[in-house]
Amino acid sequence: MIEIRGLRKTYRSRKQSVNAVDNVDLTVGEGEVYGVLGQSGAGKSTLLRCVNMLERPDTGTVAVDGVELTALGGKRLRIARHGIGMIHQHFALLSSRTVAGNVAFALEVTGAPRAERRARVAELLELVGLSGRADAYPSQLSGGQKQRVGIARALAARPKVLLSDEATSALDPETTDSILRLLLDLNRRLGLTILLITHEMTVVKRICTSAAVMRDGKFVESGRVADLLRRD
Ligand code: ADP
Ligand code: ADP
Fold it and tell me: Which key words are in the record (predicted)?
């Protein structure tokens, strides 16, 4: 579902250059929950942002669902990106729009007809357990509820792949657990493929089937989580 080959991304300034992602290969199968674990600065978020081409890699290829994104630009890339949802550590909600408005916004961008939007928003809020809060504003929600809105918005265009950028790092342990349970539930019910980055081993242990450890832009270890744990 996700195929990355020979991916490199270097940030250059006058003083120095940083190999943020240094020759990474990664294959994530359909329906897998794959975790990339590493400390701050390891290159995790650069890697994730290359998967949906928020960053354009210097070299290497990224294919999602059989479509080589690195070969696309413009409108065709924008359309391909509808197949990839993303959730963020700090939720990235629009504070001036209601819960329903935040989710509807993602549908507007995909060009869904007005009449369909309302029903789809209701369906998405039901999916994440927020049916009662459609008219609330983000400031009126708990962190866990905000992330549920983020998840509903990420799934608006029915993506096959969800990218998670430290989605539970701003949440307390109990809320973290409820969000991880929701992600696992969506993985199973929708067959959603999930690629997540985290600095927390507990997250990887809790929901990932496979994982890689990233350091200085490289994967230093990777495999099935059960095998990685046995090696420690
Ligand atoms: P992580 O997500 O694991 O914390 P990042 O991908 O954010 O790692 O960063 C990897 C390296 O690339 C770090 O050394 C960071 O300072 C550098 N870096 C990330 N983004 C930029 C940028 N936009 N400009 C310059 N350097 C960057
Ligand atoms: P905002 O003012 O935050 O933009 P709106 O009330 O204008 O929010 O709603 C934006 C969109 O969200 C509407 O077009 C509608 O499709 C959807 N929407 C609004 N309220 C609900 C609701 N209670 N249930 C389902 N969808 C809703």
Answer: Amino-acid transport, ATP-binding, Cell membrane, Membrane, Nucleotide-binding, Translocase, Transport
